[in-house]
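Support case: user asked for a sample of complex input and structure output to validate their parser. Sending the pair below.
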Amino acid sequence: MARLLLIEDDGETAEEIAAELADCGFEVEWAADGIEGLDKARALRPDAMIVDRLLPGMDGLTVIEALRKDQVRTPVLVLSALGAVDDRVRGLRMGGDDYLTKPFAFVELIARIEALLRRPAESRETTLRAGPLELDLIARTVKRGDRVIDLLPREFRLLEYMMQRSDQLLTRAMLLEEVWNYKFIPATNLVDVHMGRLRHKVDGPGDIPMIHNVRGAGFILRTGP
Amino acid sequence: MRPPQFIHSTTFHWALAVGGVLAIFVSMLFGFIYWNTDSYLIARSDGMTTGQMNILAAVPAERRLYSINQHLKEDSRNVQYAGLFGADGRWIGGNLEQMPPELNVNDTVRGVSVVKELPSGPERRVIRAIARRLPGGEVLVIGREVDEANKISHVVGMALTLGLLPGFCLCLLAGAWLSMRAQERVEEVNQRVQRIIAGDLRERLPHRNVDEPLSKLAIIVNGMLDEMETMIHALAGVGNDIAHDLRTPLTRARLTLERGRTNAASLQQLQTVVDRAVVGIDQALTIVTALLRLAEIENSRRSACFGNVAMHEMLGEVRDIYEPIAENKNITLRVDAACHLTVRGDRDLLIEAVANVVDNAVKFTPEGGRVDIELLHADGEVILRVTDTGCGISEQERDAVQRRFYRSDKIRNTPGVGLGLNLVAAIVKLHGFRLAIFPGPGCRVEIICADELMVSGTDRHSAREFRDGITHSPKAAVVAAAKSI
């Protein structure tokens, strides 16, 4: 069971977040300010941290900086009401691994925490495998079993990202940020359209469906039944 | 008694200083004239005195006294002195009855003090005199009173009093007047500014004519106030828009929740109600996000992350994104970017702008229609043209669509918050480009970039940056962006 440290000064928000995380099977520790948070992070060595940016005592980014100085590499999800791109970039550069703007949906928070906990390890592998899928990064070819799947460049990138995070829920916002490199949410639901086409190619007639749409949340590439 | 306020003003101090310097200068000038004229007159008079001495000394002894008396008699101005003394110092003749003690015999002409017998009594006078011993042993003294010098010094003194004193006083008066006038203006401006601070945004600073510095300043400040008034009114307008557009979904959510709480009989019914409420709240959040994004773009400084953007590559990317969506709607999406053009800009923002335009085009084009994206280079301009066969924008709506939250009645049932074109306009403006919307059977939107903003090589690029510094300062860009609020 993964242990999480939540540093958030608003008690009510923290309570809701902690309860939701507990429901999802996480063990959650809560700290109400930056200094307490830093102490707990050092003492408890959590698997991941959720840090609010604006905290009394010591702000969230300073907490992360201090931890990084101590060579603590715990992945961090920064929560903030500041949505500007500059802030986001700064937050990430200072050591936070992901950034979520308030207010957010729980499903988004959980998906991002899962993604942080299961960050794909750095590997020199040039072939990705997920269930019957095989993706060659050099030759840029994809096979499902023996069937060769012909993909457009963008579809290839989308599948590559999903295979690196198979069996994880990926939200539309995560896909837009990572695959399309979009810093904005377009009006049209373009992720759904592209995903629909990819699914059509990956899950042929008679195949067990691999790409699943989780209603109101996002998509998942399931390797098992 | 308290001294008047103008005494402390810098204008008055300056006037005082200028008056003082002028007085010193004029005094020096007069002094110079006085001393030069004086020494010239004395030299001339000395020459004449020496000449007289030579003539009288050469006269034979028996006629000498007669000649001296004759010489004195011819002096109508009564400035000549002469005296003949015996070898023992005894007075023989002439109007000098005593040998002046400072006078040395056989010396050159020099100033000595003598006593002159006047009808009003004896009077001490300073004269220029010379003494010479004659062959017979007598001493002859010839002198002359240089009264011209006295007259000149008198005239100079008079001139100084009559000219300088009134001049200096005039200087002080002018200084006092100017400083009082400036103080009045400042007081007047202060009163108006206080009114502006108190909230009267229509108040302006007073100004008279254009050439006066204070008026010039007032005109500049008034220009700034005009700009700020427009901006503040625009902001207030935006505030109203936001209030309206946020209240609509929030009201819906609130009513849904309230009714659900009273009426829901089962958990499932309650969940349905909550889902609907969440949709309403999400819609409100989308508006907030869009507005923040708009503010962020409008307030961002030009060229912060500007680089070279290859337009044709960018269009390729936009096509990749929208082709499947268009295909799903059975719309033909055609990209014609034959020419390879590179402009200077923020790549992410430009993609966002173009994607927004294309998004709109695809959204408002009915099935079976077509959307054309073209990149043209014509008439010294780079034109990115997006044409669709949708419902189009009517002439009356052309300006309205660039306003915030404007949604045409024709598209009321299409999802969206009505900020898309605002975003496009803000991004286009930030880059110094132009946005043109043409009505027609469908809709044609053009993003126009003047050739100067195009980059075709490294040298043009640096030249552009130089130009940038002059005409597109970040501040100007911010002002331009602020205007669009």
